Amino acid sequence: MMVAWVVAAWLVAIKGVTSFVAPPVAPVLSGVVASSRRLPSVFEVANPEVAEASIKVPDSLPGTPERWVKATKQLATLGPASSTLEMIEALFLAGVDVFRLNFSHGKHEEKAELVKKIREVEDKYKRPIAVLADLQGPKLRVGVFEKDSAKLTKGQKFRFDLDDEPGDADRVQLPHPEIIGTLRVGDTLLVDDGKLRMTVIATGDEFVETTVEVAGTISNRKGVNTPSVVLPISPLTEKDRKDLAFALTLGVDWVALSFVQRPQDIVELRDFVVANSPSSEVSENVKVMAKLEKPAAVADPSLAEIIALCDGIMVARGDLGVEMAPEDVPIIQKRIITECRTQGKPVVVATQMLESMIDSPTPTRAECSDIATAIYDGADAVMLSAESAAGSYPIEAVTMQRRVISRVEADALYRQAQTNNLALVTPEKTATDAITLAARQVVDTVSAKCLCIFTTRGTTVLRAANRRPTAPILALTPQIATARSLSLVWGVYSRVMQVDSEDEFDDVLFDAIAIATNAGYLKQPTDLAVITAGVPFSTPGAANVIRVVPALGPREWPEVLCFPETEECV
Is position 117 annotated as part of the catalytic site? Predict the structure, then answer.
């Protein structure tokens, strides 16, 4: 609590701001706002015609109540099982905050149609929804076999070379000279997601000779992994470049780069985004996510350097579990989450979270425990892949994931874990960090129902979310792109709200309280909201005010304030 009052005093002394005040609260009625002045729509940019009506009625969204207050976010991959407008809407109502487009499959026109449907759902419910474009990345594969496959035995020799002749039980083409030229004696090759393992015993300009350590059948175009080496290849294949250029025209909010090996891969991706975006606005708004699935990427010091260059991280446990020992993956997952919390970057845990629900309407108990572990560890979001893209029970899978989230977040041990993890977050010597640190303390001290943050680019919101406040964060931003990208961040729910630098502070406060009340965070006139902003408004990175405001207002609002439980107004 002392931190909050110290920051408030500092603001008064330095900035002349006297906003850190909890005004007297009158015992009045309970409910929502109705105003004679025009208030901002949730999606003012997209839907100006509904601006008046949207603020005068309380939200009554379908779905269970916990869908709209959970802190941990949900990503779901769209595919054949979830490509209709009705299914996308159902998944959103079940809990999905971010839809993933897997560019390993499907045509561009199919992706464009999916984005169109997502935006229709977004427009219908006046809630920002993020779209993540997941690039395939460099897939390394063997060539073909004369008989489509060959059975290999333990201890036999097997050669990989550049010859395009069909393979047999002794050799096969590996059409990747970059691998041939990089592998050394003693290195490991994994084929078919690790089902076969070979050790290099000899190398040449156009071949590598191996000994089979784990036997099995190798068949046409199976994938190859090289866990022990960093390959000198671009993270963006020609297909990735075409896919990314197209995704940027769709206005996706996040781009995920697969098989990141080193920090330079992120730099290359960002350079491509800048050079190929349809406008500077697009390149500034799109967020970059690194998928960590290579041993080189999670080793020191690369891990911290990669996270520092990204806007977010995905723990891609599929290929990570192929290239590393399975027992190492949970440890690496915790290390990645810890480093992301330390740097204040959102982190997604993905792959096989509810794998059994591809074919079953109920999960295994181990899968529920897996989801819970990621949440307890402090992940911002959890993701579904084939479960929602190709499974028989996509809605049930999303619902089950949300149920686990809600149950864990209601546990006192979860809240204690988030509090303990605050030790990971070292405040930067900035006004933004001082404000967000103080705001978290104020929320706890006065038992505020929500933390409202005015933001342009989302920086203050990210810092606040990383401190895991005990109340939901309502991000108020003039930028629809910011609102969408924040959909992936722990505890954040966004609304688009236009604020001009010359707006009166109390008028803007009224708008914020109106939106918070309509969103269901403030249910009684005595409910408190903690509000942070940068004054003058619309100045990025200028957070310098904290205000504690009851739903009734710092004084009686000059507008009419109505509450639905009694249908009376004050």
Answer: no
